[in-house]
Amino acid sequence: MTRFGELLRVLASGGVDFVVVGGVAAAAHGSPRSTQDLDIVYARQDENLRKIAATLAPYHPYLRGAPPKLPFRLDFETLRAGPNFTLVTDLGWLDLFGEISGAGGYDDLAAHSIAVDVFGIRCKVVALDDLILAKRATGRLRDLETVAELEILRERARRPFQ
Questions:
Q1: How far apart are CA 53 and CA 98, in angstroms?
Q2: Cross-sheet strand order for the sheet of 85-89
Q3: Residues 6 or more apart from 116 whose CB is under 8 A from it?
Q4: To which H or E segment does residue 43 belong?
């Protein structure tokens, strides 16, 4: 079971630059769907990569679905070598993305993000329009279903008294 609040608290207290995307972002915008993981898009600058590695190290990040004895260390060099990691940690599932299809990377998303309290932690959450673009770009059935919900939420937000 993913402990969303603790994961967010750890990332925020570690000074990591990130934007919440995926199911948690959809829920922050009002979607009733649940999710099993925390998805974030993170800044790819060297200093932020070092912060991510140091912040997550005590929680034993490991590649989700990989064989148990596969050598893996989430450190600066690993993060610099590849942008996307689906991880299991002592706090639950965490997906790190350098960018997301349809919406871009950290700088793109952060520019339009909204500051929201998510599980009691103030953090950047992807803007609703960018989330819809990203979900649509994946093309997965569950994401397209979420797009339909998010579009209804967007329409209601534009016309709150109708």
A1: 14
A2: 62-63, 85-89, 92-97, 37-42, 18-21, 121-125, 114-118
A3: 20, 28, 122, 123, 124, 125
A4: none
Per DSSP, the three-state class of 77 is helix
Give the chain's length. Answer: 162
Note the pLDDT tens digit of each residue in 81-127.
Answer: 999 999 999 999 999 999 999 999 999 999 999 999 988 999 999 99
* Global pTM exceeds 0.85: yes
Q: Report the candidate in 102, 92, 86, 116 with the shortest Cα–Cα distance to residue 20.
A: 116
State the DSSP code for 71.
-
| CA-based nearest residue to 38, from 65, 76, 1, 66 | 1
Name the DSSP letter for residue 120.
T
pLDDT at residue 81 in the model = 97
Inter-CA distances, 10 with 5, 17, 32, 76, 131, Å: 9, 12, 25, 18, 24
Taking the C-alpha atoms of residue 101 and residue 63, their distance in angstroms, rounded to an integer, is 21
